[in-house]
Amino acid sequence: MNFDIAEWYKDKLDGDVILNFNGSITPDIITDVLDTIEKSLNLKNEKNRVRKKVYNVFVECLQNLFHHVDKAPAELDFKQKDNFGIIILSQDGPYYRISTGNFVNKNKITVIKDRIDQVNSLTEAEIKMLYIDILSNGEFSDKGGGGLGMLDIVRKTGNKLDYYFYKYNNKNIFFSLDVYIS
Amino acid sequence: MEAIKREGTPKTPYVRFDGENGVIEIKGRSIPENSIEFYKPLIDWLENLASTEVSEIAVNVQLEYFNTSSSKCLLDIFKKLELIHKKNSSIEVNWFYEEDDEDMFEAGEDYQSIIGLPFKMIEIEE
Hints:
heterodimer, A: alpha+beta, Heat Shock Protein 90, five-stranded antiparallel β-sheet, 5 strands, B: alpha/beta, Transcription Regulator spoIIAA, six-stranded mixed β-sheet, 3 helices, 33% strand
């Protein structure tokens, strides 16, 4: 059976949705979206520690999309297809959940998978060491992150990254990522 | 050397790089998509400062949030300051973090572990 993006979307809208965006991820959109979550009452009433974590991790997730999404398939049933991404912030019981969805080309799966599996396999102390190591010695790309993004998310949340690749067609893969913050 | 002063924006911090008064300040949030574009002039400015005589510089970093792409640029700033410090300038970094903000505190510790500059961790109330 083919992957049904509408079904995926519906699932992710579970819980108390604070923000739901789909479309072109641009610098202006990022500014607007961040402004929206900052004004959300859920977060305003939150402890400083959690509020800042959610905000920080949300920025990383959004900018990951901005820098790394591949072209969405032409037949996709969404209005804006350039730099297409989906991002949802919801509060689900004791957790805040950030879900992102975007298309990547098939040949990128291995790189993304290896990266996340590596980060997920590390202990807290190892994550900190690797973070400092990449920060002090790592080569940074023009996009700036140098692989610190995923590491930073896991370090700040203390939770593993929950991801899945769905085959959309022979070329386009839908990359789904869930990040939990408590 | 002419000072640099920039007001903060939703994605970039307030900065004041003032050689004459020996003050460097970075305050607010640093989450631009293109951090290099924002920080390059500041790093160049420090490069020039290294060739002048400065006896004392207070560095105040009071960030609310910063993204990973800014983290490398901040490191480059500290590296330039470290060089100036080694040439007999007295430099101290005041790293401000909000009460309860363990992430910002740890970020300060990260830099402290990489850079040979004295860091003072200062907690501020919400």
